Every structure is written in structure tokens, then in C-alpha cells.
Amino acid sequence: MRIVTVAVMASTLAISAVSQAAGVIPGVNGSSTEGTSQHSGQINMFDGISLTEHQRQQMRDLMQRARHDQPPVNVSEIETMHRLVTADNFDESAVRAQAEKMAQVQVARQVEMARVRNQMFHLLSPEQQAVLNQKHQQRMDQLREVARMQRSSEMTLFSSNTRSNQ
Questions:
Q1: Can you list the residues of the chain whose pLDDT is less than 70?
Q2: What pLDDT does residue 5 have?
Q3: How high is the pLDDT of residue 53?
Q4: Which helix (H) or strand (E) segment is 59 a member of?
Q5: How far apart are CA 60 and CA 55, in angstroms?
Q6: The pLDDT of residue 14
């Protein structure tokens, strides 16, 4: 079951990376950067940052170059994983190999997107960078709180299961 979960997650990550690489960064592709916009369930790196038109254009240009440099989605890899998941006999080693192959592509995409985002970050003024870092810290605090609540929930579930088994 864990392998199937990994396979599904790898496919989902591949698809989300493609949409991200396709330039769905709100505020850079023409929509507002004010407020907390979200796209595909992802928080935009530049939410809350007021960009000048020149910065927006520079970021659009960076994204366009990144899209141009990205290899196309390899549909056959996704179809191969689907065939492995739906096969009559589960072949863990084949699924693992396919998942690792897809994960390597995903890692390369993420590295490229990090490079582009680094370039975008350095287009910002020091004040804009400070706001971006502050927003990032707020999101990290929220994620830490979610993780803490999840651990607390798991502990409660574990202790109630232990008591009921006695």
C-alpha cells in the first residue's frame, strides 16, 4: 500500500510541477499580488508583495524562459505507472523503479524552479525581500502548528487504541 501511495504522490507531484512550470504564479502572470491568492492549492511565493510593472515583466520573462527550457511532460511514464498500479500481479520492484525514475525528473524540475525563484527573489528590493521573508516565516509558523496538532492527534489515537486493546 505504501508503494501505491508513493506512486500516486509521484504522479501528483509531476503534474503539479508541470502546472507550476507552466507559469501559474499569480501576480507574475497578470493577476494581483495583493491578499492571499492561491492556485492549485499552493501558496504563491509573492503573495502580499506589491510588484512594480517592470518587476512583473522581468518575472514573466524568467517564467517564459523556464517554460521554454522545461522538457515536455512524459505521458508514457505516467501511463507506465498506471499499468503497474492496475496490473493483476503487483510488482513492487517495477513500481519502485518507476517511482524513482519519476521522482528524479521531479527533483530536476524542482531544482530548476528553485533557480528561477531565486532569480525572482533577487529582482525584489530589500524592503520587498523583508516582507517576503516575514510572510514565509508566518507560513512556517502555521505549518509547525499543523504538525504539532497532527502529532498530538496521533498520540491521542495511539493511547486510545492501546487502552482499548488491554
A1: 1-43, 160-166
A2: 52
A3: 95
A4: helix 53-69
A5: 9
A6: 47
Q: Which residues contact 45 (CB under 8 A, 6 or more apart)?
A: 25, 117, 120, 132
* Cα angle: 20, vertex 21, 25; to 5 degrees: 50
Residues constituting the chain: 166
In Å, how far are 22, 39, 111, 126, 150 from 17, measured between CA atoms? Answer: 8, 12, 11, 29, 26
- What is the rounded CA–CA span in Å between residue 78 and residue 105? 12
Question: How far are the Cα atoms of 26, 118, 137, 140, 142 from residue 48, in angstroms, in the given order?
Answer: 11, 18, 13, 16, 17
What's the CA gap between 103 and 14, in Å, rounded? 8
Round to whole Å and give the CA distance between 120 and 20.
Answer: 15
pLDDT at position 102: 94
Taking the C-alpha atoms of 111, 59, 73 and 84 in order, what is their torsion angle to the nearest 10 degrees?
Answer: 50
- Nearest residue to 135 via CA among 67, 55, 49, 70: 49
Cell digits for 142? 502555521
CB 100 within 8 A of CB 92: no
CA dihedral 20, 26, 28, 31 (to 10 degrees): 150
